Amino acid sequence: MNNSKYKKFVLIILTLGFLPVNALAQSADPVAESDDQIDRPWGLSVYYGILTDATMMETITFDADFNSEFKFWVVALSKRIKKYSDNLDFEIEGQIAKHSGGQDNMELNGLLIARWKKFPWDGFVDTSAAFGAGLSYATDTPVFEEIS
């Protein structure tokens, strides 16, 4: 691993699911509203990832070196706090992460997220992309941070 202090940790996330927490608020008549008309301000996500010490540019250009020994699972609860437009929302999110493999600590995270909601293929696969930043608390000093 590169020990450059200028590199930031990047989490590559394979999203396994998204479940609307407010499913009970949906209309009883499925013809009355389409999915686009149903307001879903809460979200529950579960995902898995592998850590890397690559920069964001190295990651998005597929030039990142992933240390598959350092894995994590996350359960996250998000809440929309501002609908900026039909395409963009701002959210807050709380996460509980469990690391495995090269380290064995838990992590609590709180972040502010910008989510882009419209893509040309949404009629086939409903897609959104989000970027967030925030604070985290690890129950132990992460081994990945000690060796990077």
Written description of the protein model:
7% of the residues lie in helices and 50% in strands. With 148 residues, it is mainly beta. The chain has one domain. The termini are close together. The model is unreliable at 1-33 (pLDDT under 50).
Annotation, overall tally of beta strands: 6
Oligomer type: single chain
Q: Fraction of residues in helices?
A: under 10%
Helix-strand topology string = EEHEEEEH
What structural category characterises the helix and strand content? mainly beta
Shape: globular
Domain module count = 1
User: Roughly how many Å apart are the termini?
Assistant: 6 Å
The largest β sheet comes out as: 6 strands, antiparallel
Order of strands in the sheet with most strands: 1-2-3-4-5-6
* Low-confidence blocks of residues: 1-33
Number of H- or I-type helical stretches: 2
Strand content: over 45%
What's the topology here?
Elements: E1 10-19, E2 42-52, H1 56-60, E3 66-83, E4 88-101, E5 106-116, E6 129-138, H2 143-147
Antiparallel strand pairs: 1-2, 2-3, 3-4, 4-5, 5-6
Compact summary:
This protein has 148 residues and is mainly beta.
Overview features:
six-stranded antiparallel beta sheet; disordered N terminus
